[in-house]
Amino acid sequence: MTYTLDLNPDELLTTTRTVRKRLDLERPVPMELIRECIEIALQAPSGSNRQTWHWLVITDAEKRAAVGEYYRRAVEQYLAGPGAAGKLHADDPERGPVQRRVGDSVAYLGERMGQVPVLVIPCLEVRKLPAGNQAGLWGSILPSAWSYMLAARARGLGTAWTTLHLTYEQEVSELLGLPEEIRQTALIPTAYTLGTGFKPAARQPLDDGLHIDGW
């Protein structure tokens, strides 16, 4: 029987963090555990119940290293830009230090993505991207990907939602042999965590963004 952490639903939802520096890069992750997490993820909603999702799980060391190199290049470009996490709210005495820590952890993972034991890329089968509203399209895979991350957390695994590798989407698609109609959604590094105690993150007050019956 699979071991799961003693977390109630609210604790699971509020402590599933983006994990970068606390990923255990040395401990192998059994494929059976990844399959179990994806099985749970398949219970998420899908537009019109099409279920056109696909899950690319990368464990091969050379392929992980190659994807990691594309990610490293993308992170390097991201960190040099004005919108990098570590540069946001620089003058805010409360949020500034938090953002700098986030920036540091992004840089850390950027150098080590290729060493993470398992890389998971949730994909969606799409013949042609519509020109207009794509919320329904991506809404058919994002809840499933988040469910995967929740299931992983419950089993002592850490994950991070990343998309920077999509700067090199075509190159990664060719590397992994993806058909033309398969669209990558994210890159989710998955590993056991160094310790399992995670806390809710600091967030802006609810009333700063809550609007009832209008703006």
Give the overall shape.
globular
Hey, roughly how much beta strand do the residues contain? 5-15%
Please tally the β strands and state the result.
5
Radius of gyration: 18 Å
Chain-averaged pLDDT:
93
Secondary-structure element order, as H and E? HHEHHEHHEHEE
Amino- and carboxy-terminal Cα gap? 49 Å
Summarize the amount of helix as a percent range: 25-40%
Largest sheet: 5 strands, antiparallel
Uncertain segments of ≥5 residues (pLDDT<50)?
none
Number of helices, counting only DSSP H or I runs of 4 residues or more: 7
What is the structural class? alpha+beta
Characterize this entry briefly:
The protein is an alpha+beta fold and 215 residues long. It has helices at residues 9-15, 31-41, 61-80, 95-112, 135-138, 142-154, 169-176, and strands spanning 53-58, 118-125, 157-159, 182-184, 188-192.
